[in-house]
Amino acid sequence: MLQLQSLSLRRGPHLLIDQADVTVYPGQKVGLVGYNGCGKSSLFALLLGELQADTGGAAIPNAWTIAHVAQHTPEGPREAIEFVLDGDAELRRIEAELRQVESSGDGLRQGELLGRLEAIDAYGAESRAARLLHGLGFAPGEERRPVNDYSGGWRMRLALARTLMCRSDLLLLDEPTNHLDLDAVIWLEGWLRSYSGTLLLISHDRDFLDAVTGHILHLERQQLTLYSGNYSAFERQRAERLAQQQAASERQQREMAHMRRFVDRFRAQATKARQAQSRLKALERMELIAPAHADSPFRFAFAPAETLPRPLLRLDQVAAGYGGTHVIERVALSLNPGDRIGLLGRNGAGKSTLIKVLAGVLTPSAGRMECAQALKIGYFAQHQIHQLQLDESPLAHLRRLDPAATEQALRSYLGGFGFAGDRALDPVGPLSGGEKARLVLALLIRQRPNLLLLDEPTNHLDLEMRHALSEALQGFDGALVLVSHDRHLLRVTSDTLLLVDAGAVRPFDGDLDDYPAWLAGRASKDAVLESTGNAAASASDGKDRKQQRRQAALSRQSLQPLRQREKTLEQRLDSLAARRSRIEQALSEPNLYLAEAKTQLLTLLEEQRQVNAELEETEEAWLEITEALEHARQCEEG
């Protein structure tokens, strides 16, 4: 078992954990939660031997194999599947020794090693690795591509697959869902539920924690407390304790009263009944968990939109895609104030493509898009984080957006997003990914949009910020379109679920809990179609095969410009990644932070910002191209 005994841990002058005593038994699945920066990742570093305890220690059985995802982005020319197979260290060790033994002619040792390979199912290892890659979203056939061919997000999926490949006794996962879409998150849930070892999981996805964990280890005010049950059970237990803090509870109740007033005001109006009912359901859940978040540092709300025209935006038979290939077709959609739409669909189906069309980033190739004259869009996508000015403060960003507001008003507003006091004046550059995402959201909300388009807004946000965002969205009076792998956010903010699949956008027949079953059915259908297609191909006559080859050749020819563009973008990604690595190496030099080197530091920070922005744009373009090629491949197979 894993034991923390009188453990105290510091990072610099900051005490993170004070005299902790915790026991985790073999096979337990434990979620580690707490505010960003409280010390969760530092505890993992301690368990991995990368940090030393100030007092006490952690006892882990010597025979245990520990697996964790490396923090650095993998790179190299190795095939993806070979990189994943490297996660099974014993397999690779035996293979290496077997090559040496075969050359030396030691038949006895060779037999022993072959027996051990049989015992660890080495002959099924490649199949297991391929299943891991497929589960995490890699298309069949992609496993032979070099690691360097993939963008940063997909490389992190490779790193996760490599970790899962390890036959471990203790698995440490730090935010494993950050780079995954909803399909991959659902698959990972199933894999972790069947994992037989001990799991310590850091995650800010409450539905994911609920599905996987049976205990919650809460780090708060330097204290570690182990709760029985999943995250929802932890919230209830903690809520019961915090409910006694009357002052904080009263503040929470005022926010609940605001939502009740909306329900009481609009539940009788036919045009608002659905929105009122949705808020009523969300309110019931929020009232249950509200006291558990009464001490959250985040407090913000959407100001009423200046105008709310009806409709805000309309799509009529719209098609869109990349390089002449349509990803979505014949889309008809009307957005009105109060609409709450969550988008579902497999990776590459076109969810982000639809969001970009709505945002005006991608021009439809067919059909008509009509926008209200007073339409004001708030669009959140991950690439916008890299467009922040790294040498400027959060206050400077906000002042540029709202120059007429007083400094006190702007600082009070930023305080609701966790930028209180001097943090509002510090440069953006050193902020974490989650802090930058909070700032982008703060800037977006300040613009008072009447149409919100959110594409994975919760990446890198902690549980408290996610809860605050879900509460704020309840009070938003415009229309919302949301893509997210956070099912709790989808559940409490979406009234309507639309499925993006096979180029079409249509209402999803069911609720969010039915989506995993739809995914399983879709996968089975694909397998049947593939099998049927193979049988039909083998039974077709020579003339049909000749015609199919001719059509395939024409298809390959039409896609050649896309493939050439893909290759060019991949080369550009490699170049930018190498340039970013050189900049990060330069920024690691201590002398750069001396007063006399300030000019050089600012120059490097600006160059880093530009490279990150260009890398994000290039990566996004590459993803669009690969999405289009994947869609074309699916059309050919279908």
UniProtKB/TrEMBL annotation:
This is Probable ATP-binding protein YheS. SMART domains: AAA. One of its GO terms (molecular function) is ATP hydrolysis activity. SUPFAM superfamilies: P-loop containing nucleoside triphosphate hydrolases (SSF52540). It comes from the Bacteria. The keyword Repeat applies. Keywords: ATP-binding, Coiled coil, Nucleotide-binding, Repeat. Residues 2-246, 313-527 form the ABC transporter domain. The keyword Repeat applies. Residues 566-621 form a coiled coil. Belongs to the ABC transporter superfamily. ABCF family. YheS subfamily.
